[in-house]
Each structure stands twice: as structure tokens, then as C-alpha cells.
Amino acid sequence: MIVDHLSVGVSDIDEAARFYDAVLACLDVKRMAKMDGLVAYGTDFIQFIAILPYDQQTATRGNGTHIAFRAKDKTQVDAFHEAVLAHGGSDDGAPGPRPYPHREVYATYVRDPFGNKLEALTDGFSI
Fold first, then answer.
1. Could you give the number of structural domains in the chain?
2. HSE-up (13 A, CA, CB side) for residue 27
3. Domain VOC spans what residues (predicted)?
4. Mind listing the pLDDT tens digit for each residue in 93-106?
């Protein structure tokens, strides 16, 4: 299966841009586009988008849904967690070892200012 990109709904693009600019920079991810209704990030191409809902209704988060970002090492995971807290996000699982089906990983779970659940981890499934 190939996933082209992922998106999360937000209620304020400028706030989302400030948050994700700071947080994703910790993982060497850069802003690639910003336009009416969305801000997009990636490494070599757009992979993650924060977007206003097209139906103009309130953005809602999915229960049981989260976006996991690959970190190079524990230092990046820790920096990601600190940046989230410094830019209006919240803790949902402090950095530390986590059992995964294939091996133990080092990860943190957080929420962005809009309630979307995010994870940064080392040695995830995509290594």
C-alpha cells in the first residue's frame, strides 16, 4: 500500500502554521506550501497537510486516529515533545520506550492545539 499524503483538520490555518512550523522542524520537515485553507509539509514532497474542512463545519478529530512522524533518534523525539508543549500543544504520553509488534521503539504521544493526536518515534514500521 502506498499512502500519498495525510491530513488533519484544523480551525485556524495561521495557528496551525505556527505550531507545525516549529514542531516539524525538530524532525527536519519543512513547510512546502501555504494557501487559503491549508498549510503543507514534507521532506522532498508534500506528505502532511493541516487543512480547514471543505464543508466549512468545525474540524473534529478521529477517535483512535493518530499521525506518526519518523524521528532519527531519541533527541529528535524529545525535541518534538518539548516543541509541542512550547507551542500550544499538550502531552498525551511522555517520551520513552514503547513496545511495538516488531521491536521496542522510543516514542511520544501529543495533541496539537486542535486536539489531533500525533506521535514521534524512532525505529517505527517504515525503517
1. 1
2. 27
3. 2-123
4. 999 999 999 999 99
